[in-house]
C-alpha cells in the first residue's frame, strides 16, 4: 500500500539532476517554451539572487541566501529511468542552462565547478555518456550548441530542436551580465542549493497520467485574476450580471492572445494607472514587485488609491479595465506581428522590453480615438527603442530600460496630449548622458550578437526602404534566422597580418560593426570564406547597404543616389575597391550616422537648449544595495585617473586604462562600462570575473581591484 501512494518531496536543483536519467512519457508534448518564457525565468532568478549577493561575500554565505521555489513536477520510475509526467518545460530549460553555465565556468578557469556541473548534466551508463534528460535526437545538439562558436541547426533538425536552439540563443545573447562576472560561482552555488522544486512521485504510469490530468485539466484553480474578480464583484450591490459579463468577455478576448495575457494585462493596467512607481528598490517590495506577484492582494490593500469606496466605484473599475484591455490587445498584436505603423512596439518586444505597455496605458485617456492612441503608443515605443539602441552601443545593460519606463509613467499618467507627450519625451532624451558618438570601436562581442544583429537589421532596413524597396524587417528579425551576420573580413588572420600585426588587433577590426553586414543565411554560408575582392560582386546582388560597397553600385541606381544625397551620405555611403582598416573605420562612421538618422530625437520635437540633469535611474543606489564602482575609487583618490590596468592569464598580460569616468579602455581602443566586459573582450571568452581579473599599477606594484575596493569599504572611504 505504501508503495502505491503518491509521494511528494522538496528537492534542490542539485537533487533534481543527481543520479537521474529522465525520459518522457508518450503523451508528453514537445518542448514549447519560447523567448519570453526563458527571459522570465532568467529575470526571476537574477532578481532573487542579486537581492542577496554582494561582491564582498565569502562563498559559504550563499547558504544563507533566500531560497526560490520553482514549482512542482510529476514523475514515475521504472527500473533505472525516471519518466517526466509534468514539468518537462522547466526541467529542460534548467538542463540547457546548466550546460551553458558549465561553459561560463570553464571560461573563468573554474574547472572543478564545471566538472561538478558535468555530473549533473550527464552520467555514464555501461561505458556510454548519457544526458540526464535523455531525449532522442538531442544528444549531438546539446554537445555542440554552446561549445561550437558558429553552431547552426541543421535544416532537417527535429521540430522541438528549433525551440531548444532558440532557447540556447536567448541564454547566449541575454544571460544577465551581473551573473556572468564575479558573481558567477556564487550564482551557480545558489542555483543548485537554493532553488528548489517539489517532486511528486507517482507509483505507476497510469497514476502519473491521472495526476497530470488533475493538475492540468480538472477543477478550478483560483489564481490572482479569479480572486480579483471575486473581490470586485462582491462589492457591487444588486444585480452583478452586467459586470460579470463584461469581465468574462474581457478575459476571453485577452486569452485569445495568450493564456497569460489576462493576468499580464491586469498587472500592466495597475502599474500604469495606479502603482507608486517613485519608490526606489529597498528592503520592502515595491508596488511593481507586489503587482507582478499577487496583484489581487495589492488591489485589496490599495482600494483607496484605486478610488474604491462605493458600489459604483467597483463597477467603474471593471468598465475601465474592459476599455483599456482593448488598447492592451492592440499593443500585444503589434508586439507579435510586424506593423510598420507601430514598428517600434514590435522591435521592443523582439528585444525583450516588456515594460513598454505600462507607460502606454498610463498616457492614454478613455476619450482618445484610435489615431490619438496609436500616436501616443508610437512615441513611447520610439523612445524606448532609442534607449535600447543607445544603451547597446554604450555597453549598458538593456535591463536598465525598465527604470526609465517607470519614471515615464509618473510623467504621463492620467492622460497627456500628443504634443505634451512629445515635449516630455524630448526632455527625457535631452538628459541622457550617452548617444552614438561613442560607437567608434563598437562591434560584435561574446555576449552581444543579438544587439548587433538588431542594429544591422535596422540599418539595412532603413537604407532599403529609403531606396523605395520592400520593408523586410520582419524577415530580418525572424527568430528562425533566415538572415545572419556576415563578416566582410574572412576569418583568416594570415591575410591581414601585415596590416593588423597581432591576432588581437585583427579580431578587433574584423568584429567592428562597420565590418559587418546582414545577409541571407544561405548566401552568407556559401561565400563568407572568400577574399573581399571576390565577395563584393555577391554583395551587390544583396541589399543596398551591402551593395554600396561595389564600385559600380551607383550606376543606373537613381533611388540609391537620391537617398544618399537626401541624407548627405554621398561621402560615407561609398564603394571600396579594397576593404582595409581605413575602410572599416570609414564604414563605422557611416553606421554611426545611420544610427543617428534612424533614432533621430527630432521625432519628439525640439530638444531643450538647456537640459536639467537628472541622475541615471539605472545607477540608483539604496541602503539595501550599494555597489562600489571604479568611478567611486577614482573620485575618492583610491585609484588614479587613467590608471594602468593589467590582467594576467596563463602567463599572458593584457593592458587597459581606467578612464576618469570609470569606463575601461582596452589596448585596441574599445571602451567598456564594466571590468568584466573589458576582461571578456581581451580574453575573447564568454565570462570574466572583472574585479578579480584586473590589477592596477599602484606605486610601482600591481594590486587587484577587488582588494582596493575591499580596503576602501573596510576603511569607510566609499
Structural overview:
- The protein has a six-stranded antiparallel sheet. Strands 1-7-3-4-2 form a five-stranded mixed sheet. The protein has a two-stranded antiparallel sheet with strand order 5-6.
- It contains 33 helices and 15 strands.
- The N and C termini lie far apart (64 Å).
- It has 718 residues and is of the alpha+beta class.
- 50% of the residues lie in helices and 11% in strands.
- Residues 617-626 have low confidence and may be disordered.
- Helix 17 runs antiparallel to helix 18 (370-393).
Quick recap:
This protein is α+β, with helices and mostly antiparallel strands and 718 residues long. Strands 13-12-11-10-14-15 form a 6-stranded antiparallel sheet. Strands 1-7-3-4-2 form a 5-stranded mixed sheet.
For this entry, give a set of tags.
five-stranded mixed sheet; 718 residues; 33 helices; alpha+beta; 50% helix
Q: Separation of termini?
A: 64 Å
Unreliable residue runs: 617-626
What is the overall pLDDT average? 89
**Beta-strand content estimate:** 5-15%
Number of strands: 15
Shape designation? globular
Largest sheet: 6 strands, antiparallel
Strand order of the largest sheet: 13-12-11-10-14-15
Number of helices: 33
The portion of residues assigned to helices is: 40-55%
Global structural class: alpha+beta
What Rg is obtained from the alpha carbons, in whole angstroms? 27 Å
